[in-house]
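Thread amino acids onto this structure.
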């Protein structure tokens, strides 16, 4: 019978030293890990809990820069009023994720490190151009979230490395929104989309658009952003942006939806996210 070890370091240094051992896996909320173990998809027998590591547990503001510790529960992020004000798409994505019970345990770092193509927080964070802080025993490095995912269940994290924080810069004049479609409330997304825009003199001066569950990784749609920037955010521009989505995604068929269905709904979700973000940016949101 295989013995499962469960270690609970109390500092970042201790966590990194413990997690550097062969076969060790960092775990915080563990909501995805428990599902994987029951289905036989995880053979990890050496778990290193991050729940008592204080350095990973804070939400810190420095002017308009936000640092979210990787082990902060999603419920705590979603309940933060300033995050809801400055990063509404992230708050909306968290509100759509799982149940209250799951959000009370699951963490933002865990949602990203699991690297599901359908991770609800990823499109919103991509639209905000989030950066990821990574630590190892030799120091820290920072990568853009658009460089973090390398495939389904795969990231740039090397053995012994740990995602320590998510870094965000607030854009006070921007509007942003997140849209999602699932079979039922508690299911993974069939498709999702997030958008951020800034409008000045009836021109879109800055646009970021991202989608989830329709490619091997959560995906920024740079070609759609290029269509929007410098243009009036009117019907023809939005129609052109929506039409460009299909060529940029590569959905699969699975038990939740067919690839064809995902191709049909993703442009619609992108358009709805853009419309909501534009309404917020122009002060027309209800």
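Threaded sequence (286 positions):
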């Amino acid at each position: 019978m295989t013995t499962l070890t469960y270690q609970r370091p109390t500092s970042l240094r201790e966590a990194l030293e413990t997690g550097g051992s062969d076969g060790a896996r960092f775990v915080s909320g563990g909501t995805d890990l428990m599902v994987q173990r029951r289905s036989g998809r995880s053979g990890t027998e050496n778990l290193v809990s991050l729940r008592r590591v204080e350095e990973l547990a804070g939400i810190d503001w420095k002017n308009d820069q936000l640092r979210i510790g990787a082990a902060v529960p999603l419920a705590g992020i979603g309940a933060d009023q300033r995050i809801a004000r400055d990063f509404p798409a992230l708050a909306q994505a968290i509100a759509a994720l799982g149940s209250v019970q799951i959000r009370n345990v699951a963490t933002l770092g865990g949602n990203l490190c699991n690297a599901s193509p359908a991770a609800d927080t990823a499109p919103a964070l991509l639209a905000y151009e989030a950066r990821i802080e990574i630590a190892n025993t030799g120091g820290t490095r920072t990568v853009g979230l658009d460089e973090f995912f390398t495939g389904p269940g795969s990231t740039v994290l090397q053995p012994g490395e740990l995602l320590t924080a998510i870094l965000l810069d607030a854009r006070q004049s921007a509007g942003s929104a997140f849209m999602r479609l699932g079979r039922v409330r508690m299911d993974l997304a069939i498709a999702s989309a997030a958008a951020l825009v800034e409008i000045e003199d009836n021109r879109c001066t800055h646009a970021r658009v991202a989608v989830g569950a329709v490619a091997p990784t959560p995906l920024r749609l740079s070609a759609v952003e290029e269509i929007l920037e410098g243009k009036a955010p009117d019907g023809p521009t939005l129609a052109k942006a929506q039409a460009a989505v299909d060529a940029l995604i590569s959905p699969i068929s699975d038990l939740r939806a067919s690839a064809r269905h995902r191709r049909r709904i993703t442009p619609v979700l992108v358009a709805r996210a853009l419309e909501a973000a534009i309404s917020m940016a122009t002060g027309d949101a209800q």
